[in-house]
Amino acid sequence: MLDVHGCQWVVLAVGALVIGLSKTGLPGVGMLAILIVATVIPAKQSTGLILPMLIVGDILGVAYYHLHASWKHLFRLAPWTMLGIALGSVALGRMDNAQIRPMIGIIVLALLILNVWRARHPALLEALPESRRFAAIVGLLAGFTTMVANAAGPVMVIYLLMMRLPKNVFLGTSAWFFLFFNLFKVPFSAYLGLITPVSLGFNAVLVPFILLGGWLGIRFARRIPEKIFAWLVQILAAAGAINLLI
């Protein structure tokens, strides 16, 4: 990670900018930031580099949208997400990226298909979003995927869209969820050697770009209509999932 220079710094800066944008305006682009950083830093190590950057972005999101969260949905997911993170830390220590990436892509695409099916056949799946069993499954998937690849964004995007939350409540709930659980992940990542003094030094350099992305995200979120917002985050989630399968 010490051997980063020239254009690679530009790539990392773009990744940091996208992280800020994803936390305050367009959650679906978070997967893009993970892929961008992984082109410069080995994929497994990049999870530790990205995590503190995500936390900075989460703080921005919470600061702006903290009054809009749906705590009912957060509390319903919380215990299962913590269990998923614990399971993900075990997997991260034993699996390589070639095994983990396609698995996450399949999970996200399955949730996208489920959401489209629900929209076309609302009577068949009307009770599913309020089901505790469904919340448990989503919490486990979100916890596992956020630990192994910082890739729970698409999972949460689809889940929160299925809850039919207004745009600001969507963004506030997402911001609080990821702030809490990204902080919860830090000891696991440090134990696995993925967060180090060197990686934190990189994070410090990239913070201004996260802040700039956060400011751009707030301006973007104000201008986009609700329906376009919902479709756009689904398209970006699908694109991220398909990329994991390639």
Account of the protein in words:
The chain is mainly alpha-helical and 246 residues long. The protein has one domain. It contains 11 helices and no strands. The protein has helices at residues 7-24, 30-38, 43-65, 71-94, 97-120, 122-125, 132-149, 153-162, 167-191, 197-223, 226-245. The longest helix is centred in the C-terminal third of the chain and has 27 residues, at 197-223. The radius of gyration is 17 Å and the shape is globular. The mean pLDDT is 82.
Radius of gyration (CA) equals 17 Å
Which overall shape is indicated by the principal axes computed on the Cα atoms? globular
Count of discrete domains:
1
Q: What share of residues are in beta strands?
A: under 5%
- Class from secondary-structure proportions: mainly alpha
Determine the oligomeric state from the structure. Answer: single chain
Helical content (DSSP H or I, runs of 4+): over 70%
DSSP, total strands: 0
Uncertain residue ranges: none
Q: Give the overall average pLDDT.
A: 82
Q: Could you give the distance between the termini?
A: 25 Å
Biggest sheet overview: none
Can you write the helix and strand succession as a string? Answer: HHHHHHHHHHH
Number of helices: 11
